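Same chain as my last thread, 161 residues:
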Amino acid sequence: MSEESVPMTIEGKKKLEEELKNLLQNERPKAIRAIEEARGHGDLSENAEYDVAKERQSFIEGRIQEINSKLARAQVIDPKKTKSETIVFGATVVLEDISNGNNKKVTYKIVGVDEADVQAGRLSIASPLARAMIGKTDGEVISVTTPGGIKEFEIVEFSFR
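reply #2:
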């Protein structure tokens, strides 16, 4: 795993911390109890409950390590304190889809990978659309290759909130 910083908003960091707390205080103890219970059922070589419990514990431990690593490398950015003449991480951007005369407007906030939720208007910094917006400003047109072909968007405005 690379040691580069992981950009995230304050909300994204809080969400990861809450998930970590839940894993440590609730999920890990539940997994341990499930393993102990399955062990009590006898022969482990043919015990599907034991295998499932061990697999769940492995997933939980892996996720705990992943979250700890991300939090250790977190570069927490407060968009409200960002001052930039161009679009950067944390920007809320209004785009107009100018492909096919569609002219539909969409608004996205550029956030960390773990915070992304396109339906909620939160776009991952790693996504092709966010990458195309970085460094641009109002009035510029960007092209993005999508599964449906190339789409063009005009940047209507952006802000940091």
